[in-house]
Amino acid sequence: MGEITSLPVRVDSHSPAVWGEHVQATDPPADSVGYPRRPRAALTSFVGRRRELSDVKHRLTETRLVTLVGPGGVGKTRIALEIAERSRRGLRDGVWIVELASLRDAQRLSQVIVSALDLPDQSNRDPLDKLVSFLLERQLMILLDNCEHLLQDCARVVETLLSAAPGLRILATSREPLGIHGEGICVIPPLTTPSARHSHTAKAVIHYEAVSLLVDRARHVLPDFEVTNDNVEAVVQLCERLDGIPLAIELAATRLRSLSVTQIVERLDKRFTLLTGGDRVAMPRQKTLRALIDWSFDLCTEHEQLLWGRLSIFPDSFDLDALEEVCGFAPLIAESLIDLLDRLVAKSIVLTERTGERVRYRQLMTIREYGAEVLEPSGEFSTLKRRHRDHYLRKAAVMVERWCGPGQADALAVMTEDHANLLSALEWSAHTDGETGTAAELASLLRYHWVAGGHLSDGRRWLDQLLGTEAMSTSQRGQALWVSAWIALMQGDTDDAVEKLIECEEIADTLGDRKMGAHATQWRGLHDFATGDVTGSITRYEKAIKIHTDFADTASVLTALFQLASAQTYNAQDEAALKTCRRAIEMSEQLGEQWNRSYTLWITGLCHWRRGEPESARTAALQALRLERVFKDSICTALTIELLSWIAASAAEFQTAAALAGAAAAVWAGLGTDVKAFGQPLHQDSVHSAQKTSEALGEHAVTALARRNATMTLDAAVSLALGGPDQTRSDKPTEKSPLTKRENEIANLVAEGLSNRAIAESLVLSTRTIDGHVERILTKLDFASRTQIASWIASQRGRSSRTRSG
Predict the structure, then answer these.
(1) CB distance 144 to 101 below 8 Å
(2) 119, 68: one domain
(3) Are residues 355 and 484 in the same domain?
(4) For residue 722, how many other CB atoms are within 10 A of its CB?
(5) Stated pTM of the model
(6) For residue 433, what is the domain's CATH number?
(7) Which residue has the higher pLDDT, 9 or 135?
């Protein structure tokens, strides 16, 4: 999959006499730029890339110039060669390769193309004129490989040739587009790669392109290599840390002669020396990973190189504001950064990620580590790290200040995207002299990110680590204490929480800080509720609400209100609880606030359920869940799905109750906590509902339904609770097919061994239509072969059969 330029396309032999001998009887010297070399078949198999091949082929039907762009080593050349080979039979005069990587004299470009096409014209005419005359009536494709260092000249020649020769098609590969009107651009991404953040089985990961390539190439040096349960974690880490770059994976595979996958992963911090020894006949820049990136670096201007180095300070994606605030200092100015960034994007040094109108940027890990090496001798590291930390500190402060308004969901989403940046900022601050207090301040300000964003473990770990030091002010310590206690309560650690809150109260009294004291009082209220002192929690909540109101801290007032309503519900004060909920909802609606509102709706539903009003309870719970679809707050989602399970059990809808309980358990598992952490009263209701369901269905049936939903994602759990795919019925498979009805029909015929032509005849459709359907089926299922479709269909039939028999 790497850009190994020594893998030429087989040339069409059904051409006029002038095309009959593409290669001269005696090959020229290997270093003769542009002369044709004897074609040879690819020595390695073509792995994956079905989606990209389809995209390029489609673009070639729309325009006569298609440029494959992407970072070095991503596989542009190999894809182009595969496309050229597949296209040659449809072109009367064949497909011709022009390799430009070694060409340094741009004035020789036209002559190089002339030589590659082996033109018989021996006159003294201008080479471009020769090309125009020769191509005028021809129908062929020219592959211009590696244009990035000759962009302007390639653009000029290509535009001239396409204007003169209507039967000509040009397929180019480059790190950036040629920039010609009508150019079709296909961005070639890295190979699909499993995430090391999730667990995988050996059988499942082989369907990822990066893993398939690693296995394929590894077997060239280690014939019995396979992914096993012992090495699957290392395989996933290797593919992810190499960014799914084909060349890097191929180079790593050669090391399996003498190292295990785990040993390679352990040495990846030395990747530029480890990943060497590729194809002996490859271009020099493709024999080592460093040489490949050196090539890209040398094509950048001095300021582009400087920005490349500075961008390595971001451990993951970043937005434009971060770029300007962190990197915009002399000799680079903020106003020039957009142009520099645009040029790095064009050169495939920086990749873009779009979510609606929001655009973020990132570098592949290999590119970023190269940039870190560039940055090291500049002496800018500490300056950049401080600017980086200060940017996210300001961002966190703004999030808290503006939390109680309509932008909550977007703020949470952006912070989640910046999670790696936040952890990096904390890491640097915690381990830099004089910065620990600021680290504690940042960790405290990230309170909503930790709790509402579902990052409890990270928040607790950092706050506790910082609280274990003395290098911060008393005020900073007090803030960190109550935020850490809040998270501890979410995780069910009531003993640790109360110790921190008592210390926080002492600090607040010493400083005379009533605002800090109110936070301590509020979370002491939740501690009381969680440990069974419902009356005591009501007293504390009411006190905290009064002080929060005095300080106009509306966000804290709303949170304390829904907590108060929860305590009132379990203190037989139903009317008071509903009144408190109405007060909180009215305030939320006035402010456009939704996060506290979703919790308040959950409490409203809980109160109605305990009053024996199931329809009102379900209505409120579903309203809460619809809001959570936007927020993705796992805690409120889990609590609300729990409530819907209890409502179903009360209505004797026991299969639904069991399925919802399983979905809630899956969300809890993702958080690392459970309903018990939120108070004995809630836990008792959960236990009672589970017992009632088990008595009705039997332990075996309940366990089966729970197990079926145990691995549900948050979105899938919400979808089920909102009335999505019914996973409780025995006549339906447990997973919804990603295929349409027609695609399912065709997939079943593929599984029966029918060819596309036979399927077309059976369904009275054109073969081309069936080709398109099969292509989409493979893409949707992320498969590479018809055999995989057949296996998948068999597994679906087996699952359906097991479900019916159960």
Answers:
(1) no
(2) yes
(3) no
(4) 14
(5) 0.72
(6) 1.25.40.10
(7) 135
